[in-house]
Amino acid sequence: MYEKYKARGKVKFQDDVILTPSSWFLPTFNWKEEGNFRQKCNSQNLTKQQGVVCDHLERKSYKNGALPHEAFTVHHWAHSYSHYFQNLKQIDIRELIPNITIT
Fold first, then answer.
1. Contact indicator for 56, 41 with CB cutoff of 8 Å
2. Orientation of helix 48-59 relative to helix 34-41, angle to 10°
3. Are 51 and 5 in contact (CB under 8 A)?
4. What is the model's pLDDT at position 2?
């Protein structure tokens, strides 16, 4: 995977922290949440990013469809570790690393 990412020309330094495209690791969502997503997407108080996600879900009729060929995992994988951090406070990475450059 690292070599694949490196081939895209994204790696600048040997010790870079790499954030790969979401289509590589979690390109699907939990289908049991479809009703919840529909309800949230019908809300009038969506942020711009939420609107983008809802438009995407609407175009896909709220279905996952076929997996992208580059996918390594699907959302089910998250169940193997997610119970460890479900109740933890989220921290913006900029609080931890003030001078971070996100590209």
1. no
2. 130
3. no
4. 63
Tokens for 2? 């690292």
DSSP codes joined into one string, 9-69 = T---STT------HHHH-----GGGHHHHHHHHT-S---HHHHHHHHHHHHTTT---SPPT
Query: What does each C-alpha distance from 93 to 16, 84, 86, 87, 101 come to in angstroms?
Result: 15, 19, 17, 18, 11
Q: Which residue has the higher pLDDT, 33 or 88?
A: 33
**b/e string for 68-98 if b means 16 or more Cβ within 10 A?**
eeebeeebeeeeeeeeeeeeeeeeeeeeeee
**Confidence (pTM):** 0.54
Lowest mean pLDDT among 82-86, 93-97, 98-102: 82-86
What count of residues does the chain have? 103
